[in-house]
Write a structure and sequence with these properties.
With 208 residues, this protein is an alpha/beta fold. It is built from 9 helices and 5 strands. It has a 5-stranded parallel beta sheet, sandwiched between helices. α2 packs across α5 and α3 packs antiparallel against α5.
Length: 208
Amino acid sequence: MINDEPEPRVSTKIIGITGGIGSGKTTVSKYIEEAGYPVYYSDARAKSIVNDNLHLQQEIKDLLGEKSYSSDGTYDRKYVSEVVFADADLLLKLNALIHPAVRVDFEKWVEQQTTPLVFKETALLFELKLHKSCYKSILVTADDNCRLKRVMDRDGKTYREVETIMQKQMSERDKIKFSDYAIYNNDGLEELRTQIMLVLAQIKDSLE
């Protein structure tokens, strides 16, 4: 007798990946992806969603004005950053618009996955309490001097500019308290890869 009932869907567990500016969380996420795990890049997806979601576009314009989108209709990240960087209340309101749209996109993405583990890279995992919906959370961290130099080299920012950004982010000490695993990205790619493989093994063991 042929069983026409669909196969039960594998229960998917979400692993959050986060880290402050210059920590290397995207590098860690790429290694995890290379190891065969699906990774959702929240910050990258948000950059697409603010351009593709017409309802969200209008909400952002209502909050920040027409200048938040350039004449060709694309999101003016530089203008928006300058406006909200100086106004914490506006930043909260902007996040309250963007993050629900990203959450819906993420949920659709998860439904398409077939593996028991998926990973979600996001800068604000703890700030937005997204870790509460994750099975485990991974913090990628590094010494302040390492992070400062990376961002200065990568983005061409001054020491003071990067330091100001870091001061506005949740402290590494507080992030470590919330995280299940911490990966320290101070000592080169080989050491980083070793730590990643160890954390992945520990997460897999926790499923058994």
